[in-house]
Amino acid sequence: MPTILGTGEHRYRVVENFAKLPDGWSLTDVASVAVDSKDRVYVFNRGERPMVVLDREGNFIRSWGEGVFSRAHGLHIDADDNLYCTDDGDHTVRKCSADGKVLLTIGIPNKPAPFMSGEPFHRCTHTALSPKGEIYISDGYGNACVHKYTPDGKLIKTWGEPGTDPGQFNIVHNIATDADGFVYVADRENHRVQVFDGNGRYETQWNNLHRPCALCCCGGGKQPNFVIGELGPGMAVNRRVPNLGPRLSIVDHTGKRIARLGGEHGPGVETGKFLAPHGLALDSRGDIYVGEVGVTDWNTSFPDTEMPAAVRVTRCLQKLERVTG
């Protein structure tokens, strides 16, 4: 029997062994995923081939990015199938064509801004686009802010600082936008998603999340849903506590939870469990693709257990197929 996660209108079948890679290839950590207009899946990973492209059945199409990226982190795709690849290893965002041609680089490779200076970038994490094509960049691990750029890469403004108050961040890890131009920020270690207008004015926040890590806006309408990947416990003291994830939560445009997928019994490699959801994307049919950093997270979740070989090869990419009818 297939494994089904979720309830009601939000039920998903776990597709086992989704990625069909050439012999000897490994994805290792899948930092982020994106789906283009033809339902091709772009897998931004930390293996030898940073960008692996699959069809919606998991069949290998091509790969690119060797020698370009230092450490994959965030991936966003626009309406023209251009990819915005955030590299927290060399502190840049590169806009690339679907076949890997670099069209624009924001940031100076391997020259980070001073730690917590608010200047771009120090281990930037992700990107999102406004309805006008402006680029928002979350920044990230060595900063606590969001930068807004023109479509051609000129800095417009920056907001945010370290802290726990509204408009402050404790690892600004992911970012998304909606059709009205509102900006949604996964404020990971503050256990919340903060919502801003397009100019960085604080609007509200969504709570009752545990280390929100991945963030995806579903649909281009006025009242979209969001899928949030929650990383789960990161400390030894609560590692075995149930109902903390890792998991996916689906919320409406107000942040009200309407479904939850997995996470009741902690992390695992068993079908229906997650390791460390880090990136999310949906295809035209509403199927969910989950990139996980299970290799990096393994010693946190399973300090006394040897990591199965499958985690390094393909287990850090999962597909959840939407159940209809």
From TrEMBL:
The keyword Repeat applies. Keywords: Glycoprotein, Repeat, Signal. Transmembrane segments: none annotated. NHL repeats lie at residues 160-199. PROSITE patterns: NHL (PS51125). It holds the Pfam family NHL. PANTHER family: BLL1368 PROTEIN, PEPTIDYL-GLYCINE ALPHA-AMIDATING MONOOXYGENASE. This is NHL repeat-containing protein. It comes from Bradyrhizobium uaiense.
